[in-house]
């Protein structure tokens, strides 16, 4: 056998036993002929020792061992010499005196060290199979397993069935760009990889399954960032005969089980709730990070009749004046202030008004335009004190809120205001059902086109007051990160057709793209709803890292490349001919 124990198993109680271990050479130390090696496997480290006085030939072989060589050894467990125990290592009281050595495989010089920080992420991803040996990534994948297992166990205990849905599906407009897969059997026709199992899980409810879940692979051809990949995994849940409170309680119980299993912490339930409007109005985001203050304060009424034309003009155009008081942050550097101004412009602001309170003075290019009454109102509303930094946005409500929301997050990063030990869960509810494209005036679904309007807002839909209709939708947020979203679905054909029509689909387009769903709704579809949680994001938060690439075994770069396998790649022209595809000639 290759091993009798793993490399984190032996303790003082094993002294005197003869054991077999296998793993990688983690480190090697030659101390006057005696060779010490830390042997590593997935579970940890054990010190092994080669002593020339006991076996000179074996020790000579050990001189050839290098980092990451794969070996198997046999020998007795012995106590470490007095004063040489390592209290920081679980196996630190013992060592194994080697009397047999088998070299299973040699390693080239590693591309980077297993221990320590690696600053070249492209190099890490190119050698991802080697990178996975690093303790941090091994820990993350173990925690991912625990999260997934706890999810399955909890949902099983609640009567949910795990059911797989197709990967090769139909391309339908659901928000993001589809990945298309050409069909060889049906030339000129395409499958799509699922953005989510949304329609299938609703059809399972029509099929009487009642309680479904799936650890589902999803695919969206969209721009990438730290918490997004082209392919990702979600915990997909759907149930029949439920209302939002049922989904809230189920999700809270599942997340409590996950954090208990993976982090050993108890999550307080039920989670607090906040409407979409209150979240955006108060924190500048529909996924607010409430671990620090810096809330948005409305000053529109203060400046409605102001002699300061910029502020008065904004209110006359129907806009708002909002501000945050970054208390004690007047010491931000010029570079940091320039960064904040650039950030404000990036998210739609024409500029950024600021006031620094230093030496008892309001240092600002705009303060001189304020009347005494306006200064007093600002002083009172914002509780202004020495050392404060006031940031003001004057624009349409969505723009002003988002700009200040982005600024409060960046200031929190500057000043390290967030407590990483806090778990702040929150439900955000009452989202708008629809949103309008300012350029075209066309309406699109805020979540997806199968989301149910709130019952009390159905008359507004009939009156074509689309911007006022709220959805029976909800997101669950943790520490400013949206980890899941869901809704109660439309289950009546006529209402679903109405929704599609608002989105600009003709009857013919509805039948062509969604005929399977509309036909299903004519055969007794039950009321149903659900939620999908991003497994990658959830594990990211459990692990305390800031990128989902750290919790995915084989991720892609921000450019959508797999550097390890060099994909995407060219394919044999014969494959394209079989599919009836020809490529346009490259230009430029």
Q: Can you describe what's shown?
A:
The protein has an eight-stranded mixed beta sheet with strand order 7-10-11-23-22-21-18-12, sandwiched between helices. It has a five-stranded mixed beta barrel with strand order 1-2-3-5-4. The protein contains 16 helices and 23 strands. A hairpin with a 2-residue loop joins strand 2 and strand 3 (44-50). It has three domains: 12-105, Nucleic acid-binding proteins (OB fold (Dihydrolipoamide Acetyltransferase, E2P), Beta Barrel); 137-274 and 426-552, 2-Layer Sandwich (BirA Bifunctional Protein, domain 2), CATH 3.30.930.10; 292-417, 2-Layer Sandwich (Gyrase A, domain 2). By secondary structure, the chain is of the alpha+beta class.
SSE inventory with pairings:
Layout: E1 18-31, E2 34-41, E3 44-50, H1 56-62, E4 70-79, E5 94-97, E6 100-105, H2 121-126, H3 128-131, H4 135-157, E7 161-162, E8 180-182, E9 190-192, H5 198-206, E10 211-219, E11 231-240, H6 244-263, E12 273-275, H7 276-283, E13 297-298, H8 309-316, E14 320-326, H9 334-346, E15 353-358, E16 361-363, H10 372-382, E17 389-395, H11 397-415, E18 425-429, E19 434-436, E20 443-445, H12 458-462, E21 473-478, E22 481-488, H13 493-502, H14 507-520, E23 528-534, H15 535-543, H16 573-579
Parallel strand pairs: 3-5, 7-10, 12-18
Antiparallel strand pairs: 1-2, 1-4, 2-3, 4-5, 4-6, 8-9, 10-11, 11-23, 13-14, 14-17, 15-16, 15-17, 18-21, 19-20, 21-22, 22-23
Helix pairs in contact: 4-6, 4-15, 7-11, 9-11, 13-14
């Amino acid at each position: 056998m290759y091993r009798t124990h793993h490399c984190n198993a032996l303790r003082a109680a094993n002294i005197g036993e003869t054991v077999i271990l296998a793993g990688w050479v983690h480190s090697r130390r030659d101390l006057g002929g005696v060779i010490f090696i830390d042997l590593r496997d997935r579970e940890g480290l054990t010190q092994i020792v080669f002593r020339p006085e006991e076996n000179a030939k074996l020790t000579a072989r050990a001189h050839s061992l290098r980092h990451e060589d794969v070996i198997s050894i046999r020998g007795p467990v012995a106590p470490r010499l007095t004063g040489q125990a390592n209290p920081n290592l679980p196996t630190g009281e013992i060592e194994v005196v080697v009397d047999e050595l088998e070299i299973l495989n040699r390693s080239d010089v590693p591309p980077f060290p297993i221990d320590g920080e690696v600053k070249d992420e492209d190099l890490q991803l190119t050698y991802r199979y080697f990178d996975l040996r690093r303790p941090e990534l091994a820990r993350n994948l173990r925690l991912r397993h625990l999260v997934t297992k706890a999810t399955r166990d909890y949902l099983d205990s609640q009567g949910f069935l795990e059911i797989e849905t197709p990967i090769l599906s139909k391309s339908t407009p659901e928000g993001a760009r589809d990945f298309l897969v050409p069909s060889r059997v049906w030339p000129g026709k395409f499958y799509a990889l699922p953005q989510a199992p949304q329609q299938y899980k609703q059809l399972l409810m029509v099929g009487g399954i009642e309680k479904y879940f799936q650890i589902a692979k999803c695919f969206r051809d969209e721009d990438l960032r730290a918490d997004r990949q082209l392919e990702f995994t979600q915990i997909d849940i759907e149930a029949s005969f439920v209302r939002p409170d049922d989904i809230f309680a189920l999700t809270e119980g599942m997340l409590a089980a996950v954090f208990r299993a993976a982090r050993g912490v108890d999550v307080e339930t039920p989670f607090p709730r906040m409407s979409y409007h209150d979240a955006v109005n108060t924190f500048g985001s529909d996924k607010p990070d409430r671990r620090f203050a810096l809330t948005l304060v409305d000053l529109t009424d203060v400046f409605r009749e102001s002699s300061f034309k910029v502020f008065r003009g904004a209110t006359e155009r129907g806009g708002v004046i909002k501000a945050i008081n970054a208390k004690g942050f007047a010491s931000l550097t010029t570079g940091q202030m320039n960064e904040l101004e650039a950030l404000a412009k990036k998210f739609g602001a024409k500029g950024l008004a600021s006031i620094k309170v230093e030496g008892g003075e309001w240092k600002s290019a705009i303060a001189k335009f304020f009347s005494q009454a306006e200064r007093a109102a600002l002083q009172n509303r914002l509780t202004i004190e020495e050392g404060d930094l006031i940031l003001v946005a004057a624009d349409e409500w969505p723009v002003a809120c988002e700009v200040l929301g982005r600024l409060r997050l960046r200031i929190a990063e500057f000043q390290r205001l967030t407590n990483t030990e806090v778990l702040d869960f929150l439900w955000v509810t009452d989202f708008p059902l629809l949103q309008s494209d300012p350029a075209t005036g066309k309406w699109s679904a805020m979540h997806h086109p199968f989301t149910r309007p709130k019952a009390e807002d159905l008359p507004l839909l009939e009156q074509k007051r689309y911007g006022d209709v709220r959805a029976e939708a909800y997101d669950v947020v943790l520490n400013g990160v949206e980890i899941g979203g869901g809704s109660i679905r439309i289950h009546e054909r006529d209402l679903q057709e109405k929704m599609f029509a608002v989105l600009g689909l003709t009857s013919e387009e509805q039948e062509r793209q969604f005929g399977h769903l509309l036909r299903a709704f004519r055969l007794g579809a039950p009321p149903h709803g659900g939620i999908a949680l991003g497994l990658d994001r959830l594990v990211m938060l459990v692990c305390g890292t800031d990128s989902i690439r750290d919790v995915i075994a084989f991720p892609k770069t921000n450019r959508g490349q797999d550097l390890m396998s060099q994909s995407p790649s060219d394919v044999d022209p014969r494959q394209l001919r079989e599919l009836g595809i020809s490529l346009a000639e490259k230009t430029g």
